[in-house]
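Internal tracking record. Fields below are filled automatically when a chain is submitted to the structure queue. Please do not edit lines marked as system-generated. If the sequence contains nonstandard residues, flag them in the REMARKS field before resubmitting.
Queue: standard
Priority: normal
Entity type: single polypeptide chain
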Amino acid sequence: MGSALSGGRRDGRRLAEEREELRAKVAALEEELREARSAAAARAEAWEAERRERGEETGWLKEAAPSRGGGDEAAAEEEARREEVVGKWKLLYLAIKTELDELIQRTRQERSFIGAEQGPIEQLQREVKAKEDAMGTLRSRVEAMEREASRRDREIDILKQSLRILSNGKKSRVGKNQIHQGLVCRR
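SYSTEM-GENERATED OUTPUT FOLLOWS
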């Protein structure tokens, strides 16, 4: 019985350790998600600063282009450069978005995994509780049986003593009768 109890405690400790591991993983993933969001925010700020800078440059070039001869060529070059920058920023935005989406998806999967693990953990805890209750019931039954056996042993001892007393009494009466009959016969 002691080994069954210690086995239940070991299972409980193992479950608690697994729960703590899973909580640590969730905390690490949440930290990773915060860092990724922070990095994305920093990139977005950098992108916004770059966009403002490019907007200022574009405004300056638009003002300068008519005063120069061949403004159409300069405008076309600037337009091409601006489209190239916008394309790079779009690619950067898509990369960041994809990275964040993957991180969010991984975090959701980890949380759903942890949620799925909680079900079996709770089930195991219920099983441990049921087994502990059953063990308590069995212990009380064993104690009752031991008390009953002890009571029977006492009764048997009392009966044995009574039997000895009765048999000693008969032997002594038989002996007295024989002595008394022997005395009577001799006379």
